[in-house]
Design a protein that fits this description.
two-stranded antiparallel sheet; 9 helices; seven-stranded mixed sheet; 2 domains; about 50% helix; alpha/beta; Spore Coat Polysaccharide Biosynthesis Protein SpsA, Chain A; about 250 residues
């Protein structure tokens, strides 16, 4: 069974529509909404749907809300879902979570369908970013805390899934859309939030794919050098032992 975790900040207009297709889903027996310091009626609307709501006093960011949900989850497999998506259906949930519950994947991501085919094809060359994803708590717990920040979490999950040898996959989910930030927050606040999101993505990409990758490469080379040195030492000892007169 799966625990659905929905981090939400001021998503009163859409939260019920996100919860509804999860209620009674045959693979989901726990739904947790993390009210991330909302100032609207997000928490009240979520509670009216009969799900578990954990309210944080202050807005801590998406990754922190996700972490709080994982700590509360009773199941090993979790399904993250953004609170501002439109058009989520039980079939979409099944498509994403079954890939992990079956054991075929360690993490599986649902990407919102682009309007044109060529844009979907770009997903093979660009980072797999999507708030609707299923994964194991074990994989989540292996991501260092320093990378669990704001919008950086999705790229961090992608990297550590591959680094740990977990099979990762994704599918384009047609019919699933999102209320854009500029429409939710207003043009300028929404644009600022979008720019901060882009900054997070660029920052985490640099930290992981340049800095961390370099550190891992250096560490691996040092380990290989030590292994070679150890083999040489053992060979010299064996050679000296054979050459000694009995």
């Amino acid at each position: 069974m799966v625990t659905a975790i929905i981090p939400a900040h001021n998503e009163g207009r859409t939260i019920c529509g996100v919860i509804e297709p999860l209620l009674g889903h045959p693979l989901v027996d726990e739904i947790i909404v993390i009210d991330d310091g909302s100032t609207d009626d997000t928490a009240e609307r979520a509670r009216s749907m009969g799900v578990t709501v954990i309210s944080l006093q202050n807005n801590r960011g998406k990754a922190s809300a996700m972490s709080r949900g994982v700590r509360a989850a009773q199941n090993e497999i979790v399904f993250f879902c953004d609170a501002d998506v439109i058009g989520l259906t039980p079939a979409m949930v099944t498509q994403i979570v079954t890939a992990v519950t079956s054991g075929d994947y360690g993490m599986y991501v649902g990407i919102r369908g682009r309007r044109t085919y060529w844009a979907n094809r770009l997903l093979h060359f660009t980072p797999v970013l999507g708030g609707e994803r299923a994964l194991t708590k074990t994989l989540w717990n292996h991501v260092p805390r320093t990378f669990k920040k704001n919008f950086q979490i999705e790229i961090a999950l992608n990297f550590f899934a591959k680094h740990l040898g977990e099979r990762m996959g994704f599918t384009v989910v047609h019919g699933l859309s999102q209320v854009i930030k500029e429409k939710k927050r207003g043009i300028w606040p929404g644009l600022l939030q979008r720019l901060l999101m882009i900054y997070d993505i660029v920052l985490i990409s640099w930290r992981i794919y340049v800095v961390l990758q370099t550190q891992l490469l250096v560490a691996r080379l040092l380990q290989e050098a030590k292994a070679i040195e150890l083999v040489d030492t053992l060979q010299r000892i064996a050679s000296d032992t054979k050459s000694r007169p009995r």
